[in-house]
Amino acid sequence: MNQTIIQERSGLNQFYAKVYAFVGIGIALSALVSALMLTVFQDVLVQLMFNARLWLIITGVVEIGLVIVASNMAYKNSPAALPMFLIYSVVNGFSLSFIVSLYLPGTVLTAFISSAALFFVMAIVGIVIKKDLSSLGRALIAALIGLIIAMFVNIFLNSALFDYIISIIMVLVFAGLIAWDNQKIRYVYEESDGQVATGWAISLALSLYLDFINVFLSFLRIFGSDD
Q1: Of 150, 211, 216, nearest to 181 (Cα)?
Q2: For the whole prediction, is pTM greater than 0.90?
Q3: Residue 46 contacts by C-beta under 8 Å, 6 or more apart in sequence?
Q4: Phi, psi at residue 10, to the nearest 5°?
């Protein structure tokens, strides 16, 4: 095999490893914070649960701001991009503790395992597939916007069936986005001739982190519908 091709594949594999290292750190931080809130700081969580809606709104606004700031910093290859991503992971872990506390431990475990399995399969699809998924990705983003609107409407309808259907579609949409985001890793590497800035790795890691968390939350609603 040509030495240049071997070096290119090695470089791409290293870039994948770098992106997934950031993804793993983000998920681990969120899981750790959530676990601490559910165990060590359980009394604090119980007190906060009396105003859970308010806290979820506050953390939701903060998280949106952190995602925007972290994304902008990543595009600019700012050294602050990684700390912002890690702070976002911590805040998200805090808000996840409110949601996870509403479900049985078995349901949470099942949702997490299912999310990890789906993520792994679709990541492999995105890595090995040759067809350009860009058009599919744009269609999925449009579908996601529609689903977010539908979720907002369901706040007033309060329909369990509607929420169940939305959650199933969410899983399908984010499954496609996982494949697309993994394909983008290769495209970014190739378009930069292997000289990829760390900011790009953080930006891609943030996208994959969000994919995983949203798949997990969707599975949680699906499996926890009877909790």
Answers
A1: 211
A2: yes
A3: none
A4: -65, -45
In sequence order, what are the residues at sequence separation of 6 or more whose Cβ sits closer than 8 angstroms to the Cβ of residue 192? 200
Task: Supply angle C-alpha 32, 98, 201, rounded to 5.
Answer: 45
Three-class DSSP category at 126? helix
- Residue positions counted in the chain: 227
Can you tell me the distance from the alpha carbon of 46 to that of 38, in angstroms, rounded to the nearest whole number? 9
Confidence band of 194 (pLDDT split at 50, 70, 90): confident
**Continuous segment of H or E residues that includes residue 185:** helix 160-191
| Short-list 204, 177, 224, 217, CA closest to 96 | 217
| Cα dist from 10 to 96, 125, 126, 224, whole Å | 37, 19, 18, 42
Strands (E), the chain: none
Angle, alpha carbons 41-43-49 (nearest 5°): 105
Residue whose tokens read 């986005």: 177
Encoded tokens for 55: 């806290």
Residues with Cβ within 8 Å of residue 126, at least 6 apart in sequence: 133, 178, 179, 180, 181, 182, 183
- Tokens for 169? 């579609």
Q: At 197, phi and psi to the nearest 5?
A: -70, 150
Convert the pLDDT of each residue in 96-148 to its tens digit. Answer: 999 999 999 999 999 999 999 999 999 999 999 989 999 999 999 999 999 99
